[in-house]
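Subject: design request, 181 residues
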């Protein structure tokens, strides 16, 4: 089994599987009025991929077109699977439509979402997802949500370093004024 790697917006991803439908095979999430019947499965290249720790994932059409980027906690199985490898995600209907159009829809995961700072490995999956979304919002990501998120943060958030600088500057000015009295 040879792994397939791809650069997605400057980050190295590996293909972990593709989405498929098997005639007549389905999974119902629960009984009652909120039940959902799933028909799309994930065919993993290796079952070990289900255990990938928190990371960034991408959904591509025909291994070329990025249509969704996301991040998850826990493992890939917890984020994507219900029952026996059935895809459980907000994009599952779009994935199903693409499969019906005979397009290949694949799932990719970033190879290394960690940085090392002072000897500690820190997972930066959420930051990587946001960096990718700043460049271009893939068509299946909720454009309005991300656009509003960026605008809201620009208008309502200040970095801790900037706050500390402002407080230090204020304190320095106060000390200088006291010394002139």
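Subject: RE: design request

Done. Sequence follows.
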């Amino acid at each position: 089994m040879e792994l397939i790697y791809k650069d997605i917006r400057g980050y190295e991803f590996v293909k972990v599987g593709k989405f498929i439908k098997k005639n007549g095979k389905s999974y119902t999430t629960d009984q009652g009025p909120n039940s959902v019947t799933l028909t799309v499965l994930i065919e993993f290249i290796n079952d070990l991929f289900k255990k990938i720790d928190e990371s960034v994932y991408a959904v591509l059409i025909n291994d070329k077109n990025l249509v969704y980027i996301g991040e998850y906690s826990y493992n890939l199985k917890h984020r994507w699977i219900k029952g026996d490898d059935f895809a459980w995600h907000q994009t599952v209907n779009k994935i199903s439509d693409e499969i019906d159009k005979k397009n290949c829809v694949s799932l990719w995961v970033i190879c290394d979402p960690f940085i090392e700072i002072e000897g500690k490995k820190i997972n930066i999956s959420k930051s990587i997802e946001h960096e990718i979304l700043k460049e271009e919002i893939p068509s299946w990501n909720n454009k309005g949500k991300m656009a509003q998120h960026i605008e809201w943060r620009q208008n309502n958030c200040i970095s801790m370093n900037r706050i500390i600088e402002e407080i230090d500057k204020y304190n320095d000015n106060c000390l200088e004024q006291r010394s002139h009295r």
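Helices lie at 76-80, 92-100, 125-135, 143-156, 160-179.
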